[in-house]
């Protein structure tokens, strides 16, 4: 049923509506059984048996099965089985349901019985235990090593001194690496800041122009522009040339 | 004196007890008819209107809900005239039929179609079981002389009745 019904956990089914068309000969015996098992398959939530013995086929059945509101968890698998001679066509089973939004009272603060959740406190001692820290242990060892009496054999002391020197060197190198990485990170950050600052600089020069109105100073008296009488010859020559050029295309 | 007094009293008491008592009752219908699907005429050619699905039509479906067995007949009459239409150029030939489309009880209603009585355009069913029954009605109207139907809206009615036995 999980794939048939929608998700909400507060879903309750109050009816089933089914339809199908039996195809059979009138003389044949035919029986159709539909229903849903209980979740534990100990019985049925609902079960209907339609007996079509001696009835003509081709007539659909439409049936509505009312149920008391039943939570989805009580519904097991559904089934449609037939016995006798015949087939079932166009079977369709529809479940009628409602969703109780407060089935889980913690799902909404407005639900009755809602209890405000208390944040879970974490025991800090479980996160870090200094006595289990290998670094701390090493530091302690180093300290005790330094305090060792000097009445050891000179050879052993020399070896220890060598080893200690090696350890100190390793630690110094590791600290040096860390410092180098930190410095590199800092340098990159500064570079990025400088690049961003450069982008923010305006590439255009700001110039303020003094305000004012520049009015038209040229005035045309009379509104008539006569042709220049002295240039009549020139005007005529131009017109003649123009006409000759137009005439050339027809030649 | 005592006797007459009684008589008087009796006559008074008789006068005071005269009363008209009404008896009221209401009967709720146990057969309800409703339209499940309204039909539509398809127009496969100029002179035919038909509800056949293959011709673009839709069958009319009527639902009967009966809550008292062996008490009613369902009587359904297919159309034999238009209730509204443009003017018709010729007489129309009508055909129609009703069959059971669906039932809600396989045992009690499966024989409805077999046992129905038909006359003219009417089909009469004996409602022997309680529950719902759906009847589908086909209708076809062919214009005489193969004349074309005029453009416009055509409506006909399926008459569904529940008749007490």
Describe it.
The complex is a heterodimer of chains A (251) and B (165). With 251 residues, chain A is of the alpha+beta class. Chain A has four helices and six strands; from the N terminus they run E-E-E-E-E-E-H-H-H-H. Chain A has a three-stranded antiparallel sheet, with no helix packed on it. In chain A, strands 3-2-5 form a three-stranded antiparallel sheet, with no helix packed on it. The radius of gyration of chain A is 50 Å and the shape is flat. Chain B is mainly β. Chain B has a single domain (28-164), classed as Sandwich (Immunoglobulin-like), CATH 2.60.40. Chain B has two helices and ten strands, in the order αββββββαββββ. Chain B has helices spanning 2-17, 106-109, and strands spanning 31-37, 42-45, 48-50, 60-66, 72-77, 92-103, 117-119, 122-127, 131-143, 159-164. Chain B is elongated. The termini of chain B are far apart. The chains are: A alpha+beta (251), B mainly beta (165). Chain A binds chain B through residues 19, 22, 32, 50-52, 54-56, 59-64, and chain B through 100-107, 110-111, 113-114, 132, 134. Strand 4 (60-71) of chain A pairs parallel with strand 6 (92-103) of chain B, so a sheet runs across the interface.
Note the main attributes of this structure.
heterodimer; A: 251 residues; alpha+beta; three-stranded antiparallel beta sheet; 4 helices; 6 strands; flat; B: 165 residues; mainly beta; Immunoglobulin-like; six-stranded antiparallel beta sheet; four-stranded antiparallel beta sheet; 12% helix; 41% strand; elongated; disordered N terminus
